[in-house]
Design a protein that fits this description.
This protein has eleven helices and eight strands. It is an alpha/beta fold and 247 residues long. The chain is globular, with a radius of gyration of 17 Å.
Amino acid sequence: MTLLSVNLNAVAQLRNRRDVPWPSVTGIARLVLDAGASGITVHPRPDERHIRRTDVFEISELMAAEYPRAEFNIEGYPSEDFFTLVDAVHAHQITLVPDTPEQATSDHGWDFRGQGNFLADAVRRLKQTDRRVSLFCDPDAGAAGAAAAKATGADRVELYTGPYGGCFDDPERAQRELALLAETAQAAAAIGLGVNAGHDLTLANLPAFQTAVPGVAEASIGHGITADALRMGFPEAVRQYRAILEE
């Protein structure tokens, strides 16, 4: 069974279009957790264009007080500001991504071999407290990339599923992307790395992903589930994503 972590960046971005407190990020967090989501994901960026630092603190407090069994996953680039933020709240999982500040969204995984020492230092620092560390991983990382990720001391990799998600109009390319994801996931699992996944997963493409890439521990889904929630509401969207992930 794959757990669902709902990424709230898109909700925060909608709120930030106006100088008003709605939609409430913590309110939506409560909705999706009540509907059965296993966790919440946020990816605060330096310019706070969606998730703000205050959101991170408020979500952490909400989950500790009302949802102690749910998982809080914080994504970000391992800068000093990021370390300061995640050290000030209670997060169960930290997912490191190689984003530059100007990127609109995550669009590639780590160069595990070229940046191995940098990542090992970051992982070591984060694991001084009891937190799981996951590293954003290209779909074609394969066995060599998985081994290099493992060498950093990380607990998991998160498969970047964006290239697969972009194949909605090209079934043949989608099959090729699924094969790459499956190979990397199998290589990671074989050496004891847990496997997460995320980016552009939707109700339409998730079933094929689940069939081709079994054993994924957690899927972080934000844009797709928010788009579906505009039609059906967040609780129903959570139920439909869970139905696929838990088959």
